Amino acid sequence: YWNALQAYYPCEHDPELHHAIHYLKGYLSSVGDLLEWREAEYQFARSTGDPVLQINALNSLTEALAFYGDYARLMRLLSELRGLCEQLGDYIQLLSTMHGQAYGYLQQGLLDEAQMESDAIAVLERERGLTSSYTYWLQALVYRWRGEPDRGLQLLLPQVAPMELQSNWHAAATMLDGAALCSYEMGNLPDALRYSEDALRLRRREIDAVRLHYTRTHHAFYRAMQGAPNTLEELEECLQYWRKLRWRPWQANTLYYLGEVYAHQGDFERARTCLQEAMTLNQQMGRSLSLQRCQAVLHRLPSCNFRSP
Question: What pLDDT does 308 receive?
C-alpha cells in the first residue's frame, strides 16, 4: 500500500494528500535529514493557509525538534501550535501540545513550569472526562527530578496493568521505564532492573527500533551497575545507534550512563571522557539538570586514573 501511495507524490494540487504522503514518508522511508524533511512539510502546510494541515505539520516538526534536542525552537513552535489549537477549539490537539510544553520545560530544568503545565493538563482532562497515561508519566518525572521518586513510582505503577490489558505496549512500557528510573533514584537497583526487563519485553512486542533502543539503553545501564558481563559493549552499541540518528538528548544520556559505569568499575579516564562529552551536549541543548547530574559524577572522580584490581 505504501509503495502504491508514493506514486501520487508530489501532488501539491491536492494539499491534504500531498501532506499525508510527506508525513508518512518521514516514518516509513529513509529521508536523509528528518528535521529538514519535516521543516519542508511545515513550510508547505503554511503555504496552504489550512490551519488543520499546519497543526499536523507542527506536530511532526516539534517531535523532530525534541529528538534533536533543539528545545528553544521547540518551545517557540509549541506556543504557535497551541494558539492554532485554541483558535480551532481542538482540545485533543491542545492537550497533546501542552504535554509537549511540559516535556520541554522538564528538559530545560524548569521544574516549576513543568509542574504547573502538567497540573493544568490534569485539570483539563478531568473536565472533559479524558485520561492520559502520559500525564502521569510527566508528573512522575517532575517528582523524580525534585528528589521525590517514591511519589513518581506511586503514580506510574497503577497505569501499567490497564495499558497492558489494552495491548497498548508503548504506554505500558513507558510507565515501566519511568518506574525503573524512579526505583533507581531510590537506590533500589533490583526493582529498577525488574521493571526495565518488563518494559523490554513489551518493547519487543511493539516492534519499534527507536523505542526498543530507549529501553535497551536503560536496561543495559542497570545490568552494568549490577555487574553483569558484556553490558558496557551493549551501552556502547546503543550510543552508536543514537549517534547515527544524531539525536543529542539520547546521546547525552547514554554517555552519562557510560560515565557512571566506567567510574563504578574504576576506569576513571574513560568515565571522564564520557561525562565531558555528555556535558558539552547538555550545555548545547540547555539541559541544566542533566548537566548538573554529569558534573556531580565528574566531581566525584579522582584527579588521576586508577583501575581497581
Answer: 39
